[in-house]
Amino acid sequence: MPVTNVTHDIDSRTLTITAEFAAPPARIWQLYADPRQLEKIWGPPTYPATVVEHDFTPGGRVTYYMTSPEGEKFGGYWVLETIDEPNGFSFEDGFADDDFKPIESMPVSTNTYAFEERAGVTVATYVSAYDTAEALQKVLDMGIVEGASGAINQIDALLAG
């Protein structure tokens, strides 16, 4: 499994996931930069993602929805902040309604994804920071650790295919 470590810190309001992949950083980068590949790894296995908009540039927006096993759709969005191809990128990630407008009552995270080659593997570090401890606790209670880990763990299969 690619995920090697998961930690969360209520005091710093962060969730950090570390994973390792037998592919160069440029290949891992491409998974996020290409909307069709992103669809295969963004949602957990039982909640596949459909990317609607994908402007992978600073200030650009990515919109998507995940579909539950029952067919229910849950929207989300990214607002890209920085792009450092192929080393990583940062973005704001939030929950969205059916029109991809932010749901104000739901947590928003600031995310930094970094891809670094070490000893022939790419170490990916995914850090999500929240404005409040309550916001982090809310997504933890919603199952973000399991969902994000399940999504990241799909990457090996995509790389092998």
TrEMBL record:
Query: Locate the Activator of Hsp90 ATPase homologue 1/2-like C-terminal domain: which residues?
Result: 22-159
Top-rank lineage group of the source organism: Bacteria
Q: Please name one Pfam family that this protein belongs to.
A: AHSA1
Identify its protein family: Belongs to the AHA1 family.
Q: What is this protein called?
A: SRPBCC domain-containing protein
| The species this protein was found in | Gordonia hankookensis
